[in-house]
Amino acid sequence: MRARQLMREAWRSAISSKVSSLLVALVVGATCFIALTTVGRNAANEAALLAEFEGVGARQITVINSSEQDYINPATLATVAHLRGVQQAAALGRTTDVTNGAIPGTPATPLWPVYGEIADVAPLVAGRAPGPGEAIIGVSALDRLRFAAPSGFVQSQAGAQYPVVGMFQATAPFEDLNEGILIRAEDDTRLTQLRVVVGEMENVRATQSAIVSVLAPQDASKMQLRSGRDLVEQAFTLGGLTAQFGRATFLLILGVGALFVSSVVLSDVLVRRRDLGRRRALGCSRASLVALVVARNVAAGIVGAAIGCLIALGLGARSGVLPPVSFVVAVAVLALITCILASLPPAVFAAHRDPVRVLRTP
């Protein structure tokens, strides 16, 4: 039997056997739907997690000096900035709380002295760069301090005043600075925080060790070292466990689906034994009969897989969690392969029955 003739006969047979075809389509569709709404959700979350960890924030190293030793200084900052793999480095001084000097009662807002080029950390979006004793305000702090425009002045609790001459919007991973105000750090400003952005994730660990060697603190217990790499490794460990559970769940779903498909096909070939026996008696080969039974169920499975995937994607779009396209295609293909494998035993059983005995059976 030629392929085109086989597909035509399979389609006709699927339409004529509405109940069994509907059941096969329902089982395959349910398999795809359950897989996409359970394992697929995990795959979507994992993809989102990977995308987030590829961001700049995961490649940031932060050093906080809580000791009296000034190991974060212009010299060590320059050395760290020239380390291999370092994309960006900035040093901040001790935080001071300030308020809007013209409007009493505004909330206290952090002010950070920044050593080096402020524009590298916080690009200006309005006004001009600050000079000595001048400040620029973050986009979020502008509303918080009730500034109508980036002009005016802020005042510390000690009475120090800083004219505001511009507004900035910090880039990743320095977005937290948008909540405060920045001034230029003087040469004698005590720097308490070092932030480093590494170019590649695989270089974070080595760069972290190099930074510690450059800073060489006398009391390492008073140096806080934070790295996105640690969080990434923990997340990947958890993600690996989740992936193993997802694979096991997916295999279980496919196994249950295969059992149902096999039961439906076996029932169908028993019900249609006279029709299949007649085909054998008229010269249809065993291989053609097996192919016909399998193709008929695959045709129903394709319809079911398409419907199941579309419904799952529709629900995923509403919830905002869509699995990757490659995962959706893989689920549909594996569901159809499972349908083929589950249809083979009943099809082989039907093809090897004696057609004469089948036709004599009332």
Short description:
This protein has 362 residues and is α+β, with helices and mostly antiparallel strands.
Written as H for each helix and E for each strand, in order along the chain, the element string is HHEHEEEHEEHEEEEHEHHHHH
Instruction: Output the number of helix runs.
Output: 11
Q: Beta-strand percentage?
A: 15-25%
Give the biggest sheet. 6 strands, mixed, barrel
Low-confidence stretches: none
Rg of Cα set: 34 Å
Mean pLDDT across all amino acids: 83
Spatial arrangement of strands, main beta sheet: 3-4-9-6-8-7
Cα distance spanning the termini = 29 Å
- Total strands: the figure is 11
What is the SS-derived class?
alpha+beta
The proportion of residues forming helix, as a percent range, comes to 55-70%
Anisotropy-based shape: elongated
How would you portray this structure in words?
This protein is α+β, with helices and mostly antiparallel strands and 362 residues long. Among the domains are: 3-52 and 235-360, no CATH class; 102-113 and 122-184. The protein is 55% helix and 18% strand. It has helices at residues 3-16, 18-53, 74-81, 118-121, 139-144, 204-215, 228-271, 273-281, 286-319, 325-351, 355-360; strands at 60-65, 86-93, 96-100, 109-115, 124-127, 135-138, 152-156, 161-168, 181-184, 191-198, 223-227. It has a six-stranded mixed β-barrel. Helix 1 crosses helix 9 and helix 2 (18-53) runs antiparallel to helix 7. The longest helix is centred in the C-terminal third of the chain and has 44 residues, at 228-271. The protein is elongated and about 105 Å long. The two termini are 29 Å apart. Residues 250-354 form the ABC3 transporter permease C-terminal domain.
